[in-house]
Amino acid sequence: MKKIIRYIGVMATLCAALVVLTSCGAKPLSEQNVLNNAKSTNTITWGVKADTKLFGLMNIKDNEIQGFEVDVAKALTKQILGPKGKAKFVQVTSQTRIPLLTNGNIDGIIATMTITKEREKQVDFSNSYFDAGQSLLVKKGSPIRNVQDLNKAGTTVLGVVGSNSVENIGKYAPKAKVLQLSDYAQALTALKSGQGDALTTDNGILFGMAIENPGYEVVGGSFTNEPYGIAINKGQTQFKGSINQALKHIEKTGEYNKILYKWFGNVQGFNYGEAKR
Amino acid sequence: MISIFANYGPDLLLGLGRTLLCSVIALFFSLIIGSMFAIFETTPIKFLRVIARIYIEVFRNIPLLVITMFFYVVIPLTFAKVDGFTAGTIGLTLYTSAFIAETVRSGIQSVNSGQMEGARANGMTFWQSMRLIILPQAYRYVIPPLGNQFINLVKNSSVLAFVAGFDLMYQGNVIASNSLDTINTYMAVGVLYLVITMPLSYYMRHLEKKLA
After folding, report:
1. In B, which residues are within 8 Å of A95 by CB distance?
2. Is the pTM of this model over 0.80?
3. CA distance, residue B173 to nearest chain A CA (Å)
């Protein structure tokens, strides 16, 4: 008798799993309209960074991701869905963001993602919402002052896998050795334990690290131009249009500047006047 | 997948070479260290038994990634400069040696105790009887589980990717993010791991048939 009950239990679990799995893959993503889906559920799911101070950082106390991009995404959601629209946030990394977008787990990526030609083959980008530039973080007193100083055999530069800043180092300082770590927290730890001479990525992110770590400073100005865009799946023209429209609206009303000032207004070395829109 | 091999072949081969090198080094040293602690565990000297117990329990029960990160970020702060490849290989060696020690110990203990008594009665020292009588028999018993450990070691070497050790998994991550072709890249990486582990697996099976 016991055996039969156990057998039924196993079968029921399997059936339940099957139902759940099949209901997930109801309709191929390319045939869905993300904007209509968002309107019917009153929710937009955004992929954001959770390891990047100022842009998107997990606040351990209340278990919420906070940052400039999170606030922009919330403002855009309110514009697109109305004041009652809900923004849901999913944590992504440079490596996972495109796969998560293409398989439909998230509707849009707003995660310090530079608009590049390579990426435009895979996803669509909205208009730029932030103009970053690549820079360097070094220990205070380091002989490295700019990107030319890196172009020597024996220098090691730290970066993050999947970011285009490591590719740029290949262009600007081809003699330097590049180590690619899995995320910014790890890259910073590696810098602190002397695994590399400089950490390179976009200046906004580096400013965030310099605030947290007073022994380190951002040097070399910005030697590239990295406009951040919101990535969405190809073919979602309606969704893209509404994002661009919402972005234009919050720039016009000054809400964008308010958010920008909230996060970057007091950051040393950041030119707020130049970045505001 | 063919396009991944065509475009990034040299990178993948470099990664494959690094993974092989790391695996061979770690395999060699973990076998030596593991056997040493296995013998310690079975000696009559209590002090050595306690040392072996502590070593095995510590390294067997801490995740490999934690051991590796310790060597990558903590050791350079206080002692010597350790690069990612070295840190990964050291971590892998210590971690695997704890498992090998347990495996070899079980082999030593499954050799009939009369063998040791007989060897000692014939005037051999403990080390002599261990080396000449017990260990050859013990290794024969543990070839199948040791084979498992070796295969696990090769797969675990992917921990190098987390500390920029330029191994196969690291190259895979870099290629996946450059080509944006995640599925095919990781499939190619999987195939290359099979290239290492399948022959190893067959060789272990062959040894098992020949010796056991």
Report:
1. 173, 176-177
2. no
3. 7
